[in-house]
């Protein structure tokens, strides 16, 4: 059978020169085709160059992940970074912290009233059987509280509008306003908009989980629910009552309780509580310290961009850092993994004051034990073999206070043994412990930068951040040279 030549491609015949092309037309056509090829080549070169530039920029962007359990101080550390290195953005969002600060104050007042109407029967449950036994102390629960004598405040009368205001503020602020497993006087009348902590959200790179600045709570010049002049409901006008909530923190029973720290109220709020008239004024603009002290739970993962010099001296160009702040509760941690690729540095927050506390989300687990387990899983992860590791042994101020009040570390951490119950000794012990765990569980030898911190102290933290920044940059430069 004769072999038939394949029929010509209709497209190639469409592109072929005309059969009767003159020599002059042919020359012109070839010149035009050469020019087309040149233009196309230069477009390809441009695209290649652009792609290479994007790859180079991606390499230059330093990714820093803040990790650690809930309430360890990750967001507070980020606030310090932004206060120092993103001054303009920090300044413009200052007013939007107002509602969150008010909520912190109202929650504390509700707690004080609750404690004034009740008192704990058991002061301590210190009977661990092993290191970091779960049988450590718990905050007072409704079942171990009894009414307190000589309480000067009509507790129910005062607490009702406060609880209502607390609920209003929570509705305004959303899920971040509620602690996981939060226990308060408003149990049973919780904010209906609060969503399950098991469904964290990932916020957009540019939107911190802050209250909206368009709201009446957020504007520094607009009224707040604590202001007497502009009440949404008469019953929330807490200034009109006698005694007023402003009298509560200064009252002798409250002072006695604050002094004994049986309320679970952190020292960070003391400043706000003793200066309530400032915070409740209609012209109130939060200060740096107010914002640093303010607690707003992180419910998903937030990204922040910071701009830094790319080298050690200030004459170098600037580079970009992206910092990721995550929700630290156990129920939030599954969302972390999508941020693990190509992380340059991790700042791990271990709140070492919590040696005698349990996790809110799982009260069987000691908080220090949880930090050890987290640290072990981070240093042993294959994702972080080349990641710079920075550890903040945080909340040293609270550790010091607890030890001064006579809390014994070895009651909760028997391996601490007979070492002196002194904060510097405890810090050294824990520093060695974190280092040793890194040595034992890291797939490759690595350097760990450890700092003892109280990140609510912005001045001291500013120095630490500079050192952390330089350390991360230095390691980044070294690895870029090796790559
Ligand atoms: N006293 C004291 N308080 C601190 C320190 N660090 C943080 N805090 C306070 O502890 C609370 C919790 O801090 P955050 O930064 O919100 O904790 P977080 O790790 O972001 O917590 P999640 O968002 O729940 O994961 C805030 O009220 C802070 O002001 C510290 O070193 N000392
Ligand atoms: Mg946070």
UniProtKB/TrEMBL annotation:
Residues 122-136, 143-153 have a biased composition (Polar residues). Keywords: GTP-binding, Magnesium, Metal-binding, Nucleotide-binding, Transducer. One of its GO terms (cellular component) is heterotrimeric G-protein complex. It comes from Pterulicium gracile. It holds the Pfam family G-alpha. It comes from the Eukaryota. Residues 1-44, 122-155, 178-257 are annotated as: Disordered. GTP binds at residues 394-397. Mg(2+) binds at residue 298. This is Guanine nucleotide binding protein, alpha subunit. The keyword Metal-binding applies. SMART domains: G_alpha (SM00275). GO terms for biological process: adenylate cyclase-modulating G protein-coupled receptor signaling pathway. Residues 32-44 have a biased composition (Basic and acidic residues).
